[in-house]
Specification:
This protein is an all-alpha fold. The chain contains 17 helices and no strands. About 65% of the residues lie in helices and about 0% in strands.
Length: about 325
């Protein structure tokens, strides 16, 4: 249990989320309501993990929003672990309770904590598929873009710690945040991404695909506009949406709005798109699974191994290839 003093210090208050969102574009009322519900669920899970009376147990949050609550709980758990030098105890407990259904969200949520404390993610808690640990950099990118949107999207700034081989993963997370920053509007999203240097655009579009597929905030006809706006980056959108499909299917039935978005972006039913992530991961790792103890530094795993950053990137590339094969070259 987190001490009352620490809980009070770490508690996430509404103004801490409302202030950065003032820089965001307004969405249509129904869409804005959905985006707000996502942020509120994140905050509820965050607060519950450190002060149960201040938040909502992720298990009690509606299924379609539960992943966001788990993500928030992972952030506060990781923060408390690092501040108290607990060795990851709280994050392990969260993984024990929710890791089988929300492994992606727990890794991403931990990434928020590393970004908040300006610490490079270490391997963290070891559970599930080892290569998912790189999603902490995705969470890092989301945090930086959510709380520093103008720096990230207008100045196109990137933290020195996140440059190099982890930059594409960080930018995928920033792309997820762009979905919120731009009010989930396809035209705004395309305009902002077009201002970025060419090599950074694909990863931002992958993050958009993940966010569009996981939040289910826009109806199918708007998601179709999004797909057209991503001219030249449809495979990136498809890869992100396939990630979303897998994350949803692990948790339970895919919410209808999310399923529709995933089908538009991948051209496949969620179960099929999710299966791409499984088969492509097996191909990317050569069927291997890491036996790492979790003590090695990021740099030691960056050049090879079943859970290296190169393997993570190879996984994403194979999903894009699978998307293109499924399309048969027939995309907008």
């Amino acid at each position: 249990m987190t001490s009352p003093v620490l809980s009070s210090l770490l508690r996430l208050r509404p103004k801490q989320l409302d202030s950065p969102r003032r820089a965001f574009s307004d969405a249509e009322p129904g869409v804005q309501s959905r985006l707000d519900a996502v942020v509120e669920s994140f905050a509820a899970g965050y607060n519950y993990a450190i002060a149960p009376r201040a938040g909502s147990n992720p298990a009690d949050v509606p299924l379609e929003l539960r992943g966001f609550a788990v993500e928030g709980a992972a952030m506060s758990s990781a923060l408390a672990d690092m501040i108290t030098f607990s060795g990851g105890r709280r994050l392990r407990e969260l993984a024990r309770d929710h890791g089988d259904r929300y492994p992606h969200l727990i890794h991403v949520g931990a990434g928020w904590a590393f970004a908040r404390l300006r610490r490079r993610p270490w391997r963290g808690v070891r559970f599930g598929e080892p290569v998912l640990r790189w999603l902490t950099w995705d969470g890092w990118g989301f945090h930086q873009a959510f709380f520093g949107a103008r720096d990230v999207f207008e100045r196109q700034w990137i933290e020195p710690a996140a440059r190099g081989d982890v930059r594409p993963i960080r930018d995928q997370g920033a792309g997820r945040a762009l979905w919120f920053y731009a009010g989930a509007d396809p035209a705004r999203i395309a305009m902002i991404i077009s201002d970025f240097p060419g090599p950074r655009r694909p990863d931002l579009w992958a993050g958009i695909g993940l966010a569009a597929g996981y939040t289910g905030a826009q109806p199918a006809e708007v998601v179709e506009k999004l797909a057209r706006a991503a001219d030249g980056y449809r495979d990136q959108l498809g890869q992100g949406a396939a990630f979303a499909a897998k994350a949803h299917l692990l948790a339970g039935p895919v919410p209808e709005a999310a399923a529709q978005a995933i089908e538009v972006l991948t051209g496949a039913e969620p179960a099929v798109a999710a299966a791409w992530t499984d088969s492509c991961l097996c191909e990317a790792t050569g069927g291997a699974r890491s036996e790492s103890t979790g003590r090695a530094a990021d740099g030691e795993a960056a050049s090879g191994g079943a859970d290296s950053v190169a393997t993570y990137q190879r996984w994403r590339a194979r999903i894009r290839d699978e998307f293109m094969r499924h399309q048969g070259g027939n995309i907008f």
